[in-house]
Specification:
The protein is an alpha/beta fold. It has five helices and ten strands.
């Protein structure tokens, strides 16, 4: 095989690997002023402008595209105590909960500590569907600073909280995004951005 043919084969193989790599997606709701929880760490305010209006279901098709969920311990606690105390809402997916506490894995829920970015980087190069970054802010910002979030699917809620837990913190360098989709319903604006190549 000639050198040109070897280079062409290598480039083709690399392109296929890149295209088949799992995407890391931040799918989350924020207030109009950029908070993911209020000052009481509650998310009861996540709703449309009109309580009587029908809500568009963008979650079901999104969740069908993922098979792995990553979150912090506070997000996990909020789910099991406030959002879905009767049942775990993601039984079909493998969930990684990052925590400093020692906890026993249950079913598809794995409690882990250590290198968050290393785990996500390993997962995205493996086989499977996309990876959902569910929250919270600490998990999101670690991955953001490491350039490991491929897609930002942000639902902006028509509410100004004024205080609480901010989604994004400070980063060392600008990250440029490309808008790929928008959906508007009941005062909520869902915008989907992908990270531009470095």
């Amino acid at each position: 095989m000639s050198l040109d043919a070897e280079i062409s084969l290598l480039l083709h193989s690399s392109k296929n690997i890149f295209l088949s790599m799992r995407k890391v997606i931040l799918y989350i709701a924020v207030s109009f002023d950029g908070y993911i929880a209020d000052s009481q760490k509650s998310v009861h305010w996540i709703k449309g402008q009109d309580d009587s209006a029908e809500m568009l279901d963008t979650y079901t098709p999104f969740f069908a595209s993922v098979d792995t969920v990553i979150m912090g311990k506070r997000t996990y606690d909020q789910i099991v105590t406030e959002l879905s105390p009767e049942r775990w809402p993601y039984p079909e997916a493998e969930t990684y909960v990052f925590t400093h506490e020692r906890m026993v894995d249950t079913g598809n829920i794995k409690f882990v500590s250590g290198d968050l970015c290393g785990l996500v980087n390993d997962l995205r190069q493996g086989a499977g569907k996309n990876i959902w970054i569910c929250g919270g802010a600490n998990v999101v910002n670690q991955l953001l600073r490491a350039n490991l979030i491929d897609v930002f699917h942000i639902a902006t809620i028509p509410t100004i909280l004024g205080s609480g837990i901010k989604l994004f913190g400070e980063i060392e360098s600008i990250q440029n995004l490309r808008l790929i989709d928008t959906t508007i319903y009941n005062g909520i604006i869902e915008a989907v951005y992908e990270r531009k190549a470095l």
